[in-house]
Amino acid sequence: MDEKKIWSTVLSKIKEEINSLSFQTWFEETELYRLDKNVAKIIVPYAIHKNHIMNNYHDIIVENLYELTKVTYELELLLKEDIKEDKIENIKEINNFNTETVSIENNFIDSNLNSKYTFENFIVGNSNKFAHAAALAVAENPGKMYNPLFIYGNSGLGKTHLMHAIGNYIVKNSNKKVLYVTSEQFVSDFIGINKKDESGTNFSYVDFFKQKYRNIDVLIIDDIQYLGGATETQKEFFHTFNTLYGDNKQIIISSDRSPDDLKILEDRLRTRFCWGLPVDIYPPDFELRVAILKKRILGEAINKEIPEQVIEYMASNLGSDIRQLEGAVTRLVAYSTIMGSEIDLNLAMEALKDYINKGISEKNNVNKIQKVVAEYFQISVEDLKSKKRNSNISFPRQIAMYLCRKFTDESFPKIGIEFGGKDHSTVMHSCEKIEKEIRINKDLADTIDKLQKEIH
Prior knowledge:
By secondary structure, the protein is α/β, with parallel strands linked by helices. The protein is built from 22 helices and eight strands. The chain has helices at 3-17, 20-26, 47-56, 58-69, 80-84, 129-140, 159-173, 183-191, 203-214, 231-246, 267-273, 286-300, 308-317, 322-339, 345-351, 360-364, 366-376, 381-385, 391-407, 412-418, 424-440, 442-455, and strands at residues 31-36, 39-43, 74-78, 149-152, 178-182, 218-222, 250-255, 277-280. Strand 6 (218-222), helix 10 (231-246) and strand 7 (250-255) form a beta-alpha-beta unit.
């Protein structure tokens, strides 16, 4: 049995023994590189996979390999660049932690978790894959893997979803006490320490504060940047952080900027935020935005069909804020219902006109390219955007699409929308056709060259 078949069989066995989410995150993109003497060299996509797999799935891999080969292999986890550059280093054995789970009796303190935010409904793409993997690693081993976990990125990219997902996973799979708060809530609770109770002291509230923030297993604090300017509160958070960290309790923090860019916070806090693992979430690319929209559409459970062309239009024009993407679906469905019309591209453009960012042409010169091509071939821009198929219009249209693809960073669906809502496959065909003809048609190559000079 060759290595590919061996690994395929091992993966099928592992898939039966662990939950689908863990398998998808940690094993789906792995491959067996080589069985070298008694060492199994396995390729993983990210460095985070090395520690997590060795720490959590080492035995299950070794056992399944032995069952197939009757050889007890040591594991060596590698990144593709390790193999490409031939700089494979020996992986040190990772110590297994056996920290005993602490049972918390202070059940009167609410975890503040939102049950709708889970790993199962978090849509993973290239822009958030690493952050998702890190979050799941922490959820499976709170206090042992990456502490603190610091998630940062612009608003509306899914940081809060991931934080709640971690908390919900831990609550579901252990008896650990989890607390989620915003930094504003932390400030409010700290200010309360200065309030006096009926006895004329603040002892009871100080005790409540310490119970709430220090006698827990997992502290999740959102938007830490809002602690800036609150000097005394930062000092209290510093002491809370040290107490939890010293007791191997998990700390998870989010911000709209990286630890190094949090100049509004004390240096000693920013330094501690880097002790664990800072991970960033990037704005979703086109494919991920499409996936998010489709997931939201399914969640709406509507009886009306939303055409693929409309989804691509929304993904192309609504920006990267996930909340805005989801809100646009609700708006579109409501608009369609109220107007009593089926959902098509024209209805979507009308319903979402207040949601749409500045036009693609304004940002990436699509409009300029259309004007240059139209003028050269003595037709109108409206002709390029029309459904007319006669050769004196369709051929210039194909050239314009080719130039838009070459000189802008727009996707095929985005370009199609700028040409009257053409399907992305039409744009792809046009680009491929022109590219092939340039190689064999000198006149066309000269024409393209003239147009390129005019565009620039």
